[in-house]
From TrEMBL:
Residues 12-189 form the Protein kinase domain. Residues 165-189 are annotated as: Disordered. ATP binds at residue 41. Pfam families: Pkinase. CDD domains: STKc_PknB_like. Gene3D superfamilies: Transferase(Phosphotransferase) domain 1. Residues 178-189 have a biased composition (Polar residues). Keywords: ATP-binding, Kinase, Nucleotide-binding, Serine/threonine-protein kinase, Transferase. This is non-specific serine/threonine protein kinase. Its EC number is 2.7.11.1. InterPro entries: Kinase-like_dom_sf, Prot_kinase_dom, Protein_kinase_ATP_BS, Ser/Thr_kinase_AS. GO terms for molecular function: ATP binding; protein serine/threonine kinase activity. The lineage of its organism: Bacteria, Bacillati, Chloroflexota, Ktedonobacteria, Ktedonobacterales.
Length: 189
């Protein structure tokens, strides 16, 4: 996979690679006209014309999920056959990076993380939207060190090709109902 730093996607110039997962690369992007920053998630998968409609519907659903502890999806697009999502940039990195595997975390921050993530999941479940990949790599930290859960529903988009959600963390969340496709705002603020 060729790295896309320096390229333009939609209204964003990709400045550098923030990280890479099993099915996407995530870049810091700068808006060409506004100068604002965002995280641009470029999926490895190539969409067929049928997939594009599913991706559009999925992106529409998660873009309506507005909550203080959920990463906001701002925009989506398809460049050639490559889908990408524009999300809020979480400058604090991931909880996994802050707490590498094997380190002990004091109780107080654990309780705080759990409360924030549970609140985000409750909002999504109220909208019949399941996450499918709850794990520290998908818990980001915002400017005020708040936890922001990312990657809602993305699993469903990429699933058709190569992506499987991470079993260790994904299982419990997955037993809840099915997702909504209503496209209605799901603000739980
Ligand atoms: N909104 C964001 N703001 C800042 N950094 C981000 C954002 N989203 C993702 N990242 C960074 O990009 C990395 C890759 O993210 P991605 O979601 O593609 O993979 P993952 O969640 O680590 O693993 P996988 O999706 O394969 O299970 C993350 O670990 C994180 O460091
Ligand atoms: Mg992720």
């Amino acid at each position: 996979m060729t790295h896309r730093a320096g390229q333009q996607l939609g209204n964003y110039r990709l400045t550098h690679l923030l990280g890479e997962g099993g099915f996407a690369e995530v870049y810091l992007g700068e808006h060409l006209h506004l100068g604002t920053q965002a995280a641009i998630k470029v999926l490895h998968t190539q969409l067929t014309s049928d997939d594009i409609e599913s991706f559009r519907a999925e992106a529409r659903t998660i873009a309506h999920l507005i909550h203080p502890h959920i990463v906001r999806v701002l925009e989506f697009g398809v460049e050639g056959k490559t889908p990408y999502l524009v999300m809020d940039y979480a400058s604090g990195g991931t909880l996994r990076k802050l707490h590498p595997k094997g380190t002990r975390i004091p109780l107080a921050p654990v309780v705080s993380y759990v409360k924030q993530v549970a609140d985000a999941l409750q909002c999504a479940h109220d909208e019949k939207l399941i996450h499918r990949d709850v794990k520290p790599e998908n818990m980001l930290l915002g400017r005020r060190n708040e936890v922001l859960l990312s990657d809602f529903g993305i699993a469903l988009v990429a699933q058709s090709s190569r992506y499987q959600s991470t079993p260790r963390y994904g299982r419990d969340d997955r037993v809840y109902g099915s997702r909504t496709n209503s496209g209605q705002a799901a603000s739980c603020q």
